[in-house]
Specification:
The protein is α/β, with parallel strands linked by helices. The chain has eight helices and eight strands. An eight-stranded mixed beta sheet has the order 3-2-1-4-5-6-7-8, with helices on both faces. Strand 2, helix 2 and strand 3 form a beta-alpha-beta unit. The protein is globular, with a radius of gyration of 22 Å. The protein starts with 8 loop residues before the first strand and ends in a 12-residue tail after the last helix.
């Protein structure tokens, strides 16, 4: 069976556990050489460790190629080094999967500013730094190529909280919504060199989701090859591998939701209702009725004899 990422190299951040681990294993299965990045912290971002080594060992035992990286995605120097690590090891970097994440949940009236700042640093600053590092390399490579292109891939991670909101996550939801804006703009800026940027919105039982009482998580490699579990952290990983492949060249600036056995394309903010004022400036006292009738549909318009 042909492997769709043969000859590619990838960086997966936050790849020691959960969804990131599933992505790293799937990319390696599809032929990619993988930099397995993980700072080794708790789900709250405390401590450090070498958990990434275990994932590298699994990939190598399965016949793949991988190296560990223990850098902090929110550090400019570390982010640039982890991207450069693939180039130093294998001569190129093709794929960036920004998955690293932490949670520090509290209702807004109880949330310290440090908890907001740290979550934003990991989820927004981190993907921005790795994306910038990769984009700089790809742009230089594109300048040297005959067609002016370098078909790199950035796959960022959003979440239901960022798309719909979730009580207690004004930091995490804000960060995950910001990643959508980052990805849309990356897709525009990278288009000229042929690189793409997309969003994956996964759903699974992981160390992070387990903090909400969903149960005890299992790692992707703890499932049997033919075992089906809708909460398996790797259920979205085949979609990520496909987005990283040459076959997905035409896909950029998209948000793909991959939960259980369902894959869907999500649309961003779009008009659900609108009203105009006939080329005149709105008056505040007139807006309420127009909004209720024509925008929100919470008030019946009544019979309209004109217009």
């Amino acid at each position: 069976m042909s492997r769709i990422l043969e000859g590619k190299t990838a960086l997966v951040t936050g790849a020691a556990h959960g969804i990131g681990r599933g992505h790293a294993l799937e990319l390696a299965k599809q032929g990619a050489k993988v930099v397995v990045n993980d700072l080794g912290t708790s789900v709250k971002g405390d401590g450090r460790g070498n958990d990434a080594d275990k994932v590298v060992d699994i990939i190598k035992a399965r016949g793949g190629s991988a190296v560990s990286d223990f850098g902090d995605v929110s550090s400019e120097a570390d982010a640039e080094a982890m991207v450069r690590r693939a180039v130093d090891e294998w001569g190129r970097i093709d794929i960036i999967v920004n998955n690293a994440g932490i949670v520090r949940d509290k209702a807004i009236w109880n949330m310290p500013v440090d908890d907001f700042d740290l979550v934003m640093r990991v989820h927004v600053r981190g993907p921005w730094l790795t994306s910038r590092a990769a984009a700089r390399i790809w742009r230089e490579q594109a300048k040297k190529s005959e067609n002016g292109k370098y078909f790199g891939r950035i796959i960022n991670t959003t979440a239901g909280a960022g798309l719909l909101g979730l009580f207690g996550q004004t930091n995490y939801a804000t960060a995950k919504a910001a990643v959508a804006g980052l990805t849309l703009t990356l897709a525009l800026e990278l288009a000229s060199i042929g690189a793409t940027a997309n969003l994956i919105s996964p759903g699974a039982l992981t160390r992070i989701s387990a903090t909400t009482g969903l149960g005890k998580p299992r790692e992707a490699d703890e499932y049997g090859e033919d075992e089906w579990d809708p909460l398996d952290p790797s259920v979205s990983s085949p979609v990520v591998a496909w987005l990283a492949s040459d076959e997905a060249q035409m896909v950029s600036g998209q948000c793909i939701r991959a939960v259980r056995d369902r894959v869907s394309r999500l649309q961003g903010w779009s008009e659900a209702g609108a009203v105009t004022n006939g080329g005149k400036r709105w008056q505040a006292e007139d807006i309420g009725r127009a909004m209720a009738i024509d925008v929100f549909g919470t008030r019946a318009p009544g019979l309209r004899l004109v217009g």
